[in-house]
Structures are given as C-alpha cells and as structure tokens.
UniProtKB/TrEMBL annotation:
InterPro entries: Arylamine_N-AcTrfase, Papain-like_cys_pep_sf. Belongs to the arylamine N-acetyltransferase family. The lineage of its organism: Bacteria, Bacillati, Actinomycetota, Actinomycetes, Kitasatosporales. This is Arylamine N-acetyltransferase. Pfam families: Acetyltransf_2. It comes from the Bacteria.
C-alpha cells in the first residue's frame, strides 16, 4: 500500500470527522474532497506529464496544494479509502460525448467501486463534468442531489451512469465494466493524451472545474459552464477580465493554480482573440448537458 501521510491528507481536504469505514463516513469524505481539491488539467498545456501513482499525486495535491485529473485524484482517494479499511477497486469508464452522441473509444476516466454494506457503490471525486458527489449504488437506485437525479443501470456486461436535470431527460455520463483497471492501464492513457507524437488536443485545452453547493462550475477554453439546481448555464469568456472572474470561481482557494490557468487562457485563447475578426459578442443560454 502506498506510503502517504494520512493526517496531512485529511488536513488538505479539511476533514476531521469519524474514520470508521461506514457509508456515512464515505459520504462525508467525498464531500470534503470535492470541496477542497479541484479538477484541473493544467499540466498538459504547460508541457508537464503528471505522475499518477499515489505518492506522486500526494506530493502534487497535498504538499503542493494543487488539483488533478481523475487518474490522479481518484487514484489518491482510493489509497485513502484503502488505508481506512474500505474495499475499493479502480475501474475505467468511457465518457459520453454529447456533441458526438457517442462514448469515447478509450476507457480514459477512472472511477472507483466501493463494496460496502453488502452493496456495490460508484464513487467519483474527480471528473470535469457534473456527476454525483455522494456514492451511488450500481443497482439502478435513483439518488437525488443538488437538483439532479443520478442512476447507474446495468446493460449486459457494462454499467451506465446517467443524470437527470430540470428537463426531465436522462443524459448519459459514462459507461464502465467491473474489470479492475490500475495504474498500468492509465499510464497508457497518459501517453495517449500527453505524448507530443500523438497530437492530442489535451495540451491545447484549458480545463478545470469545481463542485459547488448548488452544482458545478467548469471552464473549458473560452466556455464557462455553471450547473445550478438542475440547469446548466453557459457563456463565452472573451476578455482577460472575464477569464480572471471565471478562474477565480473555479479555482477558489488555489491562487497559484488560478495564475497558471489565466496564463494558459491568454496563450491558448486570449492571443488568438486579439487577431480575430471583431464583432463576435458573448452568448449565454441554459442547457441540460455539457457540450465540450
């Protein structure tokens, strides 16, 4: 098992409650984690290949007070849960791409399966899009949280996680199998997305998000999305001032990350807007699903 400082980890996420491995403790740990550790993919645009092993992620998230992607943060969280006595298994999910009406070919999103109280629970504290914060039973039980319903249904050998907002329509989040997938699998995903020879869009993409009490805030390049009470609102970020406001909301409490995000936005988006044809105004509308 990875050698991490448990007390330092718990202090990083602001958790000082019970540690007995119960469902209530698990829910509290999930909430503490998402409120304290943002999802961010800033390493890719900065030309950095992140370590995804628990010790490396601990150094980044706890010691250096940063965030991380799913294969970093969920892997670290799995280590914490294991140290506390939970039965936890990393899995690999294929995210739903709304704009393509299809799932990704690669199972590139790490989720966790926790076996507790004679049931299997899906746990995910590190995803760009809106997902449930609290564990979800994978038996079709519907859970309600912050204006959305969440559900995991079995389809053959796979399980599909979905959400339903104010529109009343179920939208897929991702699908996964129960085959354990560890660091070796996700090492290949890191290479797939960050190896310069593969021409991945990730190094050219600014992406960061944070869970809020009402839902989630997400910045993807020049698109800012806020999920509140079952509805998602979006707007375009077209000025450095608007970028700063968005970044300060998403990366609240992480000033060094915020400065990095602003610099990345200026390099990827701001400099291009300076030479773009004028007249493209900011747009905003409500929508029920994120379209990246």
């Amino acid at each position: 098992m990875a050698d991490i400082d448990l007390n330092a980890y718990l202090a990083r996420i602001g958790y000082d409650g019970p540690l007995t491995p119960t469902s209530e403790t698990l829910r509290s740990l999930c909430w503490a984690h998402v409120r304290s550790v943002p999802f961010e993919l800033l390493d890719g645009p900065d030309g950095i290949t992140p370590a995804i092993d628990p010790e490396g992620v601990f150094e980044k998230v706890v010691r250096r007070h940063q965030g991380g992607a799913c294969m970093e943060v969920n892997n670290l969280f799995a280590t914490l849960l294991s140290r506390l006595g939970y039965d936890v298994t990393p899995l690999a999910a294929r995210p739903w791409l709304p704009q393509e009406r299809a799932y990704t070919e690669s199972a590139d999103h790490m989720v966790l399966l926790v076996r507790l109280d004679d049931a299997d629970w899906l746990v995910d504290v590190a995803y760009s899009q809106l997902t449930a914060v609290e564990p979800i039973r994978i038996d079709g039980t519907v859970s309600h949280e912050r204006g959305w319903d969440f559900q995991v249904l079995r389809e053959g050998a796979e399980f599909v996680a979905s959400r339903r907002g104010a529109s009343g329509r179920w939208t897929p989040i991702h699908r996964f199998t129960l085959e354990p997938r560890g660091e070796q699998h996700f090492d290949t995903i890191v290479d797939l997305y960050l190896n310069p020879a593969r021409d991945s869009p990730i190094p050219r993409t600014l992406m960061c998000s944070r869970v809020t009490a009402e839902g989630k805030v997400l910045l993807v390049n020049d698109l800012f999305i806020e999920a509140v009470s079952g509805v998602e609102h979006s707007s375009r970020i077209e000025t450095p001032e608007a970028c700063r406001r968005a970044v300060d909301r998403v990366l609240a409490g992480h000033p060094q990350l915020a400065e990095r995000a602003v610099r990345i936005w200026q390099r990827l988006i701001g400099d291009r807007l300076l030479t773009a044809t004028p007249g493209a105004g900011t747009t905003a509308h409500n929508r029920e699903e994120i379209r990246q």
